[in-house]
Design brief:
By secondary structure, the chain is mainly α. Helices cover 60% and strands 5% of the residues.
Length: 477
């Protein structure tokens, strides 16, 4: 084992690799409980939470094993934050709410096509050409925009931000039990992160769930609702609820507008390409594995990413990609694929934590008036708000994690700054990742064209800009 993973050659030890794999898992294990909550929000019909959790654990483990054996890198993989929100809130979002209105099997089919394209790009080495064609400012702006969008949804799920007439949104009733529990969870996670505690998010979620359980036992009868649920009595996740359903989504997928379908596939592919490459380069630099600006075994790492995504679509989860949280394991000394193998084993073991899913991912239906919302809707069931007091703090923290790259945008060059700014704000205020990307590409091309920098714009950017313009002219409107 030591010889296969080249542990000594890379200046590591088996103990460091095991501790590194454990550290990485503790840092990223929140996705096991967050992913089912997010994909359960598909407006066209939520996905079964237990099946999503099973798919998340199994397919993440598979991707980690491939990363370990093919690429020998200490990098773990799991469903990507941001990609899952695009899947649930945009692709499977209701048309009257700005979404594309696909069912989740159709969304899985579109994601599988993007995964196949991504695998082809990885095998034939074309990924770098695409990555280099995307302007740096837009890459960072997309990441920031997605982070803010995730944080905004977290604030909504916590009851901190609610609907208000006139201003559309405003501060909710922070005295509400759901909001107080969310604020408590945010404080706990924040304090643990400030002390650089490896498993801050997971431990924070467990502490928050415990506090919610105690509060429910003491005062739940007075509120009329529970803050957290009870452990599931079901012995095993309902795997068949999502497994294999992707194959029934291909035919109806192309019953939708072809412009919408192509845009969805392109967005899935675009997000996966720059997210994966950016993460691999960043982690490779931290681990000291870069050679002449290149990461050895990068192609194999991309294959692991693509296979993870394809297996995820088959089992029932969104895009699987490399996790920046792998830096926790690298900081603990991990330098080889053995760490990824340890993380894979822990993902498999986590399947048996399934009974906790109904506790941590519990949805609380709170009367809107109790949260301080002034919006009144008909029919009456819209007057309740779905809150996730244990998961919501995690989303807010993830938004914070994704924000620092904003400093890498060239704010001194307005032809770079304005497209980045529009990408961020349009994505945030339209609640649409696709529209944010589109406005960024279009404005970037226009500004470069009229400032005499036409030759600095890659041909791929021109193509994307034309497609987005056609999308607005004939598809969106």
């Amino acid at each position: 084992m030591i010889g296969f993973f080249q542990i000594q050659e890379r200046g590591s030890t088996v103990t460091r690799e095991i501790l590194g794999g454990l550290s990485t898992f503790m840092a990223m294990s929140y996705i096991i409980f967050v992913q089912p909550a997010v994909l359960g929000q598909c407006s066209t019909g939520g996905m079964n939470a237990s099946a999503v959790m099973f798919a998340t654990c199994v397919c993440s483990a598979l991707a980690c094993v491939i990363m370990a054996l093919l690429a020998n890198l200490p990098i773990a993989l799991a469903p990507a934050m941001g990609h899952n929100f695009f899947f649930a809130f945009m692709v499977c979002g209701a048309v009257n709410m700005g979404g594309f209105g696909l069912s989740w099997p159709e969304a899985l089919a579109a994601n599988m096509i993007a995964g196949i394209l991504f695998l082809g790009l990885s095998v034939f080495g074309l990924r770098a050409a695409i990555m280099n064609a995307i302007p740096e400012g837009l890459k960072y702006a997309i990441a920031v925009g997605i982070g803010l969008l995730i944080a905004f949804i977290g604030l909504e799920w916590a009851g901190i931000v609610v609907g208000k007439p006139g201003t559309y949104v405003g501060l909710g009733n922070i005295k509400n039990p759901v909001t107080l529990l969310s604020l408590f969870g945010l404080a706990v996670i924040g304090i643990l992160l400030a002390f650089r505690f490896r498993g801050a998010i997971l431990v924070g979620m467990l502490i928050t769930a415990g506090a919610g359980y105690i509060a429910t036992m003491c005062w739940g009868a007075d509120w009329g609702y529970e803050l957290v649920g009870r452990p599931s009595a079901t012995a095993f996740p309902e795997v068949s609820a999502t497994a294999g359903k992707v194959f029934g989504g291909f035919v109806p997928l192309f019953d939708h507008k072809i412009s919408h379908v192509l845009l969805i596939i392109f967005t899935f592919l675009l997000l996966d390409v720059f997210d994966t490459i950016g993460t691999l380069v960043g982690l490779g630099e931290r681990a000291g594995l870069m050679r002449n600006g290149q990461l050895p075994q990068a192609r194999q790492a991309m294959v692991a990413d693509a296979v993870g995504t394809l297996s995820g679509t088959v089992m029932g989860t969104s895009t699987i990609t490399s996790y920046i949280e792998s830096s926790a394991g690298i900081a603990a000394g991990a330098r080889t694929g053995l760490a990824a193998l340890v993380t894979a084993a822990l993902f498999v073991i986590s399947i048996f934590a399934y009974p906790l899913l109904n506790v941590i991912g519990f949805v609380v239906k709170v009367p809107a008036a109790e949260l301080g919302s002034s919006l009144v809707c008909v029919p009456e069931f819209f007057n309740t708000v779905d809150c996730y007091p244990v998961v919501a703090p995690v989303l807010i923290v993830i938004g914070c994690y994704m924000l620092p790259v904003v400093k890498r945008i060239n704010w001194d060059d307005f032809s770079e700054a304005l497209p980045a700014f529009l990408t961020i704000v349009v994505m945030q205020f339209s609640l649409s990742i696709t529209d944010g990307i589109a406005w960024g590409f279009i404005s970037y091309t226009i500004l470069k064209l009229f400032t005499g920098k036409i030759m600095r714009v890659p041909i791929l950017v021109y193509i994307c800009t034309m497609l987005f313009i056609l999308y607005y002219a004939f598809g969106r409107l």
